Every structure is written in C-alpha cells, then in structure tokens.
C-alpha cells in the first residue's frame, strides 16, 4: 500500500468550504495527512465490485419480499408495508449508498464488509474534500475515482426520468420540490444534507431545508413545511430509528407512501439493505461468491469471525474472535438489544504503523466515489478519513 504525505488545509479553509467536523472529540485531526495511491486497475476493481454487488442486492431484495423474510432481517413490523410499497413502485428511487470493503489494495481480493444504504456518512469528505486536498497540494484533482458530486446530480434527475437518460430532464421537470431535513444540533449531518440540497438545486429542483421537528405530515395530504407541500422529502434519520423511536411517524409515512402523496429519500426498502443480516441472505443466494464473506445467524465453526449487531454503527458492539474463539478485539455500544450476525473475519490492509484501512465506495446508479477510513482492528467513530489519488506509474 502506497501512502503519500500531504498538507491538509487549515481549519479556517475547511470551515470556509463547509467542513466543520475536522477535529475529533479527542482533539486529534479527523482528516489524515496522507493519501493512498491506487492504480487504475485497483480503482476499476472497486467500481466493478460496487456495481455487481448492487445488482445482487436488488435480486436478493426481491427474494426477501417474495418470501416474507423481514423478521430474519430484524425489520420492525411497522415498516414492512412501507418497504413493500416503496419496492413495488420505481418512483421510489434509491438516491445513494456506500459499500464498505476490505481488500482491493496490494493484490488482496475485495470483500464486502457491509452496505450503508440508508444514511451513509463521509459524503462531504468524499465528494468535496478529496478534490480540495489534491488541489491544495498541487496535484491533479481529477486523478481520482470520484465523480460522486456529478453522479448525485444525475440521480436527482432520475427521480423524474427513472432511467439512464437524464439529458432531457428540463423538458420533463414539472416544478416538483424537495424538502431536505436533518436533526437539529448535529453540524455534520446538517452540512451533509445542505450539500445534497445544493446538488439538487444545481440539478434543477426547487428545494428547501427544515429541521425534522419543523416538518408536518398528513396521511391524506403529504409532507409540509411552513404551509408548503413537498413532493419529495429527504431525511437524514435512519429508518430503524423512525420505526423504534417515532412509531407514529412510521405510520404516517407509510400512509403517505400508500396514498402517493410524497416520495421519501432514501426509500423505506433501503432498510433491508442497511440490515447487516442481509449479508446472510446474500451468502445463501450466492454461496462462496468472491466478493462475499461467509455470514450466518449462528457462530461459524473453526474460523476467525466478527460478531456485530444488525443495525450497529461506527463499530459499536462488535467482537472479533480467532479460530479458537479467543477474543481479539471488542467494543461496547448502544446497539446491544439488536440481534447479531457472524461474519468471516478478513484482515484489512495495514500500514507500517499497524493501522487498518477500509475502503468506502459510494453508489449512485453506479459506483462513483472512493475514500478510505483508517483506525484499529475495529473502525470506530475515532477513525480517520483518508483520501486517495489514482496514479499511472
């Protein structure tokens, strides 16, 4: 693995471009002062892996719905109807997600760790900050596997076009509006949502921003803010949190979808993909697929493995054990009430300081943006963002 030192722009510059979460709670920089150099072949392999896996997710999603496997995925019962309704109608377009991969560098095979399909983080870092860092260091900012910003713009247009051709968007757009929402008090999430709002504006939509507690919902009329009705609502709040903590809202959103009064982004069916238990379904349907790791609802026999909660985040409530069931690494967290899955353990690429690197590849109609996280054996909320560039020699 090739690391190249860079100078990260100072915090004043980062804040000027809207990046305020540059320092972690332990007062260390969140953005690494190195970038990873990848080859064109490695970049192409990440792209192809994301595309192939999304097709597999779509096929497996149909299998889950046909066979009513929602309980196996840990799907709350009050969102099953919303999942079915959004799956059955193409207007509920999946805007974006992020695949997390082990491998892909130094000849190591790419393996799926999980798919953050509903509310993926690191959008701003991947789409904006990587370009700024290369430019600030006198490098060719286009030497990346990273057209995430443009891909999101095209995918917003596909909310109307529903196909690959977005060139004629202006002739089909009929003034529809998108309301963007995040939770009040979270700067990172608010900046991420406002970045998406800006991209939607540039794509040609009329947009507005409101905190989630300012939005009004009517089963018969749809989604409102300050008396204005919105055909689309983007919310950066996980579907499982809505189901568990806001059951009345889950019911209202289901009714709104059923009555075709608004389209929610990301769609409710992305909760299936978000569940780590979905990777057990994938393994059943595609056993020994080269992009997959063996995954089970029960502990695996005789191999190193990772136990993690189906809706856990940021590495919380995760246990790594070796082939003799000896604990190698363990984290605590707030997701202990969720069921576990057991996934074959594969070592992440490491640098000379024994730091691990996990690739993240965004998907918006196709693979469209690469970035990395760096940390220990279990990547937690103190892991660092590491940019990249594609080199040809």
Brief sketch in words of this structure:
The protein has 393 residues and is α+β, with helices and mostly antiparallel strands.
Provide a descriptive summary of the structure in words.
This protein is 31% helix and 24% strand. A hairpin with a 3-residue loop joins β7 (216-218) and β8 (222-225). The model has no long low-confidence stretch (mean pLDDT 95). α8 (239-245) crosses α9 (247-258). The protein has 393 residues and is α+β, with helices and mostly antiparallel strands. The strands form 4 sheets. A 7-stranded mixed β-sheet has the order 1-2-19-18-17-3-4, sandwiched between helices. Strands 12-16-13-14-15 form a 5-stranded antiparallel β-sheet. The chain has a 4-stranded parallel β-sheet with strand order 6-5-10-11, with helices on both faces. The protein has helices at 11-16, 40-66, 80-88, 123-136, 148-161, 169-172, 187-203, 239-245, 247-258, 270-274, 278-285; strands at residues 2-5, 31-38, 97-102, 111-116, 177-182, 206-211, 216-218, 222-225, 228-230, 232-235, 263-265, 295-296, 305-309, 319-321, 327-330, 340-344, 356-363, 367-375, 384-390. The two termini are 14 Å apart. The radius of gyration is 21 Å and the shape is globular.
For the structure shown, list the relevant keywords.
393 residues, alpha+beta, seven-stranded mixed sheet, five-stranded antiparallel sheet, 11 helices, 19 strands, 24% strand
Q: What count of helical segments does DSSP give?
A: 11
- Choose one word for the global shape: globular
Going by helix content, strand content and strand pairing, the class is alpha+beta
Number of strands: 19
Report the β-strand fraction as a percent range: 15-25%
Largest sheet: 7 strands, mixed
Write out the strand line-up for the largest beta sheet, numbering strands in chain order. Answer: 1-2-19-18-17-3-4
